[in-house]
Design brief:
The protein has 163 residues and is α+β, with helices and mostly antiparallel strands. Helices cover 19% and strands 31% of the residues. Strand 2 and strand 3 form a beta hairpin. 31% of the residues are buried.
């Protein structure tokens, strides 16, 4: 996994939220545990790829909905849920402060403090992440940025203004 350190902090799915998702995910389904035979699944609890043999779960997660509940935003139709991988049991979280999952093309989706989408940008390669995030937060309307996979649109992590 290639990582790139910037002034911006990648925020994993918080440990307490992961614990909730292990009981019932954001779609109300119970967790199903699988042993990841090949490894390589992007874990949103610790922001690294799984290793062969790890016990993981694919759960439904609504990142904008949970952020809006914290901030009082109303994302309206932009509120969505999608699949994320987490460890089947609690984990210690990220090992550092680098931006993970930068070795593939990603979409940086920007949101306002009200929860409305403000646009997005395709980013290719580790060297492009820092400048793309700096550019995103140069817009005073941007409160949070979601980093998403291009192929499936899956949420990987968020970066918040000032943190």
């Amino acid at each position: 996994m290639t990582t790139h350190t910037t002034a911006h902090t990648a925020r994993p799915v918080p440990a307490e939220v992961c614990q909730e998702l292990r009981t019932a995910d954001d779609a109300g389904r119970p967790m199903t545990v699988v042993q990841d035979a090949e490894g390589g699944s992007p874990l949103r609890c610790c922001l690294r790829h799984s290793t062969p043999g790890e016990l993981i779960a694919l759960v439904s997660y609504a990142p904008l909905h949970r952020w809006a509940a914290e901030t009082g935003a109303d994302p309206g139709a932009y509120d969505e849920q999608g699949p994320v991988f987490v460890h089947a049991d609690a984990c210690p979280g990220p090992a550092g402060d680098s931006l993970p999952f930068t070795d593939e093309r990603r979409v940086l989706r920007r949101y306002s403090a009200g929860g409305r989408i403000l646009g997005g940008r395709l980013v290719a390669g580790p060297d492009a992440f820092a400048s793309a995030l700096t550019e995103a937060f140069a817009d005073p309307e941007v409160a949070v940025v979601h980093v998403r996979a291009v192929e499936y649109g899956c949420f990987l992590y968020e970066v918040r203004r000032g943190r």
